[in-house]
Write a structure and sequence with these properties.
- Its main location: plastid.
- By secondary structure, the chain is mainly α.
- A two-stranded antiparallel ribbon has the order 1-2.
- Helix content is about 60%, strand content about 5%.
- It has a domain of about 90 residues.
- It has five helices and two strands; from the N terminus they run ββααααα.
């Protein structure tokens, strides 16, 4: 049920309404209130907000992943960034041709790439490389990348080759 009250200098008579818990104010405007009972916090369920224990576990995994990334050399980080970007591209292709894929992989890969690039930038800052020089080095690095098939595509090709060999043998 909906209650409508209008506060204006003209007099308008409405049927008496039940007392509400809203305090009287000098509000001049239209106030719309639902007269339905409000659910208590115990009745509402939140699907988006993770519990405290799960967020602690996620944070621990993230810290573990950061330690793992920091243990790698800058060259290894660069190679893995290229591989992950290739995997991200393959996921986009799968999405465009409407193949089955895990949509959560997009976010996971983007986050991992961002973490790796963050560690790379932290190292540049430690070496005293400023932002402008960093961008210049980045451009040079991107131009030097040799395009090679991503690991998932290599596995797919090997699988197809094994199936063809099996067919030709049979």
């Amino acid at each position: 049920m909906l209650s409508l009250s209008i506060a204006s200098p003209t007099t308008v008579s409405f049927p008496p309404k039940p007392k509400s818990s809203v305090p009287k104010t000098s509000f001049n405007g239209v106030r719309i209130q639902h007269l339905c009972p409000q659910p208590s916090p115990s009745q509402t369920t939140s699907f988006r907000r993770p519990s405290a224990s799960s967020s602690v576990v996620m944070m621990a995994k993230r810290e573990e992943e950061m330690k793992e990334i920091r243990a790698k050399t800058t060259e290894e980080i660069n190679e893995e960034v290229v591989e992950l970007k290739g995997e991200l591209f393959m996921l986009r292709l799968q999405k465009s041709v409407r193949n089955e894929f895990k949509s959560s992989e997009f976010r996971r890969m983007r986050k991992r790439i961002a973490r790796m690039l963050t560690v790379k930038r932290e190292r540049e800052l430690e070496e005293g490389i400023n932002k402008r020089l960093s961008r210049k080095l980045d451009r040079q690095w991107k131009k030097s990348i040799v395009v090679k098939p991503v690991p998932s595509l290599i596995k797919l090709r090997e699988k197809e080759a094994a199936e063809e060999a099996e067919k030709s043998a049979a």
